[in-house]
Amino acid sequence: MKKFIRQLSLAFTFIVLAGALTACKGGASQSGTAAKANGAARTLSEIKSSGKVIIGVFSDKKPFGYVDSNGQYQGYDIYFGNRIAKDLGVKPQYVSVEAASRVEYAQTGKADIILANFTVTKERAEKVDFAEPYMKVALGVVSPTKAPITDVSQLKGKTLIVAKGTTAETYFTSNAPDVKLVKFDQYTEAYNALLDGRGDAFSTDNTEVLAWAKEHQGFTVGIKTLGNADTIAPAVQKGNKELLDWINNEINSLAKENFFHKDFAETLAPVYGNDVSADSLVVEGGKVS
Predict the structure, then answer these.
(1) Less Cβ crowding at N or C end of the chain, within 10 Å?
(2) Which CATH class is domain 137-230?
């Protein structure tokens, strides 16, 4: 009996040790493709050795970042992300973010790079490091064609839909306190609210509402340009100079082949048609014209 108990104890010990060894191996294999436990940014060598670069993107902001009917990420930002991964010699691993979570994903290392239509602002630049811009943008307002909003003054006492953590939320909170804001985490929720009549209008980047209105009859962009002309840029964790420098060099190098105009032609032109010119949106080599 004692011999049997001793054998059982040894067998149990072996199983525990084997399990611990397997867990260690599994953790090692995953460490290169997931955020570090302490939230520190991954180095370029760590990204390359892992075989994947983790990129935070939108999954519901067509035509910039969205998931298609086949479950694949598509859009202007994805086109750029695919090129970044190719030139790094790795595969892209896309993770879905919301407007309000973009900063947090960069700060905590959940993503190496944020390519989620991220407008550069002074407040955000205090929390993340922005690379050179690859797009320019302003705010726009889309509303039902039967009750178009063509001026901010028309929104007084009315309900405006915005996405949390966006420049639209900041702009209207500061400049139009008489406008009632209804806020949503996801763009899909915001657009559904507009379709359902839970708001009089919706404001976000003009590049997006122009595209959305073309695909949804009965809606028009009555305000095509609002607020300051801003830029869209990749973002990384604060202080991750090595990766930031690499991205800036990449953006400068891609200008030689007019890369972002090609990106526009592939992902945005089919949506905009002749309504939006590439030069009105695209930024090459980080230089805003």
Answers:
(1) N
(2) alpha beta
Under 8 Å between Cβ of 92 and 81: yes
Residue 260 C-alpha from the chain's centroid: 17
- Please report where in the chains the tokens 């009632």 appear, as a residue: 180
Buried b vs exposed e over 116-126: b needs ≥16 C-beta within 10 Å? bbbbbeeebee
Please give the backbone phi and psi of residue 125, each rounded to the nearest 5 degrees, phi first: -65, -15
User: What is the model's pTM?
Assistant: 0.80
Q: Which helix (H) or strand (E) holds 232?
A: strand 219-232
Cβ–Cβ < 8 Å for 109, 51: no
Percent of the chain with pLDDT over 70: 87
Looking at 32-152, list the stretches that DSSP marks H as alpha helix, in order from N- to C-terminal side. Answer: 44-50, 76-88, 102-107, 122-125
Check if 44-134+233-280 and 137-230 are the same fold.
yes
Residues of the chain with pLDDT under 50: 1-33
Domain ranges for the chain? 44-134+233-280, 137-230
CA 191, CA 265: separation in Å to the nearest integer? 25
> Would you state the pLDDT for residue 35?
60
What pLDDT is recorded for position 8?
44
- CB-CB contact of 158 with 180 (8 Å): yes
Q: Which parts of 126-203 fold into alpha helices (H)?
A: 167-175, 187-195
pLDDT in tens, 204-251: 999 999 999 999 999 999 999 998 889 999 999 999 999 999 999 999
Choosing among 3.40.50.720, 3.10.129.10, 3.40.190.10, 3.30.1360.170, the CATH entry for 44-134+233-280 is 3.40.190.10
Spatial neighbors of 216 by CB under 8 A, at least 6 apart, are 195
